[in-house]
Amino acid sequence: MALHAAPPPPCAAGRLPTTSRRPCFSAGRIFRCSLPAAPARPRNAAFLAPLRTSSAVCTKAVSNSDGTPGTSSSPHVVCFGELLIDFVPTVNGVSLAEASAFKKAPGGAPANVAVGIARLGGSSAFIGKVGDDEFGYMLADILKKNNVNNQGLLFDAHARTALAFVTLRNDGEREFMFYRNPSADMLLEEKELDLDLIKKAKIFHHGSISLITEPCKTAHIAAAKAAKDAGVLISYDPNLRLPLWSSADDARDGILSIWETADVIKISEEEVSFLTKGEDPYDDSVIKKLVHPNLKLLLVTEGPEGCRYYSKEFNGRVGGLKVNAVDTTGAGDAFVAGILSQLSVDFSLLQDEGRLREALKFANVCGALTVTERGAIPALPTRQQVVDALTKVVA
Predict the structure, then answer these.
(1) Which CATH class is domain 77-83+107-158+185-394?
(2) Where do the domains of the chain lie?
(3) Which chain regions cross the lipid bilayer (predicted)?
(4) What global pTM score does this model have?
């Protein structure tokens, strides 16, 4: 495999070179930002093993430090979608312009879930695309270090790894400004999918962001169909990021376009209001409008208050763990990781309300512990941390 040409030297003051200007979306508006076409660069020897290629610009990431392909064992949960860098202010309650410093944190909802499952001792894989750039290599390495199978991860030499700058309010809640027009994750193609990895999984987990633009939309739908046809349980967290959609109506239509293919759905109370056009998210009759005939479990998260659950047989609420929130980024993903890590080894939880409630208590603690640190992946807890927290709650 031929090496790429070396990249140009970095610009002064840490700025990206301004070889092209692309629009970036934020809070429904378009900001101009400097995002050049990604320069090719030499690959580290660890990435030069015989790998699957696509159009001579994408190469599959490997899972082993010696450059050999990842192991053939089939991960229980395959997560599909975006992997990016969150830049989080080091202090809360300031605007992006006022922030004096940012902490670089790996993120992207599906990737957060994959890492969260692995941190809890589960088996996971991630499928997506990053830029053929330093951030892309860093993210691939983070997946490896966290024991996530990354054989379905690709690098694209024509687009950067996605970035998101996050504003933190004093209560830890967030607002986002995204740099991805286009970013590498948006360019994943159907022909690049590792369908064998998907078909051998027990659970396929995905969101809605990769439904926004082509060609990733077609790849996303094909991946989910392959999972469904293979009898894999489908987990769906819409993870609404309204600024990335062209309009609220497009976002609602896009999210609901694959709603009835999911077996397990997790949404927040804000997303309930959005999808029902302003109806009361705490009204059970409103929630039940979102339960389709084949749905096995609908979960509604309520932050520190815990979550509600709805199935054909039962419904109820499980209280959360109250903590001092620093950054809520990744809390919902940690919750999803908590429940999927348990479902992936025991689907019978879906029929046993008592055991499901215990599993959801575990998932609530996963979410709570995550908000006590900045960033998503850096804050995801280990199983022992969750068990210790649960012991304190019981005590």
Answers:
(1) alpha beta
(2) 77-83+107-158+185-394
(3) none
(4) 0.81
